Amino acid sequence: MSTLGGPLGKSLTVTPAGASPTRNELSGYSIVQGELKEALAEGMKGHPHVITPDGVIEIVDLMPLPGM
User: pLDDT digit of tens for each residue in the chain (68 aa)?
Assistant: First the structure.
């Protein structure tokens, strides 16, 4: 299952001293559901973001919040 994501804009880093602009390598996101990251990675072969020069896709687990 996949949910259409979207592009990501400029980032801020927030510290006790305040917020300041920061560099973020991510340019967009999508939510993709699967049992194993490896299986999702296999399904990404041939995706336009992977076959472009320097293109990458990062697959990250969304972890449940404890007690929720």
Answer: 667 789 999 999 999 999 999 998 888 899 888 889 999 999 999 888 888 888 899 999 888 899 87
The predicted model scores a pTM of 0.68
Please give the structure tokens belonging to residue 34: 């699967």
What's the token pair of residue 66?
């404890």
Q: How many CA atoms lie within 13 A of 29 on its CB side?
A: 9
* Structure-block tokens of residue 17: 């001293």
* Partner residues linked to 19 by β-bridges: 14
How does strand 11-15 pair with strand 18-22? antiparallel
Q: Give the integer Cα–Cα distance in Å for 12 and 10.
A: 7
